[in-house]
Structure formats: C-alpha cells, structure tokens
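Predict structure. Chain length: 173.
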Amino acid sequence: MTVPEYRAVHGMWFRQYHRPMGGGATLVCLPHAGGSATAYFGLSAALSATAEVLVVQYPGRQDRITEPPVDDIRKLASRIADALDPWLDRETVLFGHSMGAVVAYEVALKLQARTETGAAGLIASGKAAPSIRQDRGMHRRDDAGLTAGLAELSGTDSAVLASRFHGVGLSEA
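Prediction complete.
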C-alpha cells in the first residue's frame, strides 16, 4: 500500500492528510492495534471542511517502523498527551477505535488531570466502556471454539475461518 501524502505535525506523533478549511474543533484519531495513521485517511478527507483532523502515528508503524513500539498503554497515552499540548487551547475531541479507544480514554484522563477542561469529547468505537468487563474466554478456547468465537464477531472472512492453514491447526501454526 502506498502511504498517502501527509504533513507531520508536532514531531512524529501526528499526521495531517488534509489541511483544515474551517475553524472547527480538532479531532484526534487513534488507530486500532496493529493499525496506522493511514486508516483514517478517508475520515480526514470527509471532515477537513469542518475540523482539523490529526491522526496519531504510533512508534513502530509505517514511517516510524524503526522506532521501538511503546508496550504500555499508559506510557503511550502520556506521550500522546504531551504531544497534544499545542492544541489544548482549542476544542479537542479524541476518537479511537478498538485499542485506539482504550488509548483515547487514557489520553483523556491525562488531559483532564493537566488542564481545567481536558478534552472536549471522547468518541470510542469497537470497544466497551471501561466500566464494562467482557470476558468471552476466547484465550481459553480450543481451535474449534476460537473459530466459532471469531465467526460470532462477524469480522473475519468466512474463507479464512474455513481454512485450516493448509492442514495445520491453529495451535500448530
């Protein structure tokens, strides 16, 4: 995949794919686990007329591949909150998907502790609220149970679920 053209904003933490045309809020997007800033290219294009869209690029991803990843979400959140300093004088909304929702929540907590107002909003998708525990026991399932659990989530192509990795079971792959 070709990485779309972007402008690195405030060091290496943020990507801005489209210059903002309006004077609206700043939307800070945080990708899912294994994801990168380019996941939000389309959203940036759609919203650039009304908002400044900044997308977090995690260390260890795409153009930051040579940097070691941050393996602690609270440390990652602290670094992102530090990098957001120049935007805290305006309305800033955090949006995260899946693991990005967890990181966005932790960033919101850091900003709330540092500033009078914190983030203007937090939008989380693909993740339950922190107060809701969901243990589906996926990590304890055998191959058939894991495959059934993935099918229930409806996010994995049926051809992948039907495959046995050319005769090798999941636990042997």
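Summary: The helical segments are 41-47, 73-83, 99-114, 143-153, 158-162.
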